[in-house]
Design brief:
This protein has one helix and no strands. It is mainly α.
């Protein structure tokens, strides 16, 4: 049986969906990493501020 145009379209759709899912996952992890790094920097800044206050 020869694959019809519809079958090909469905297959392409599946591939595109997979690609979208992968990029979505990647962006999610990137955002999480960014969030975490910013949180870490703010924590560091807070610690530094606290140290400075105690020094005064």
């Amino acid at each position: 049986r020869q694959p019809s145009r519809r079958d090909i379209k469905v297959d392409m759709g599946g591939q595109q969906l997979g690609r979208l899912e992968r990029t979505f996952q990647a962006s999610l992890t990137n955002n999480r990493l960014k969030e975490w790094s910013t949180r870490k920097t703010t924590l560091k800044q807070r610690l530094e501020a606290r140290k400075a206050q105690t020094r005064e």
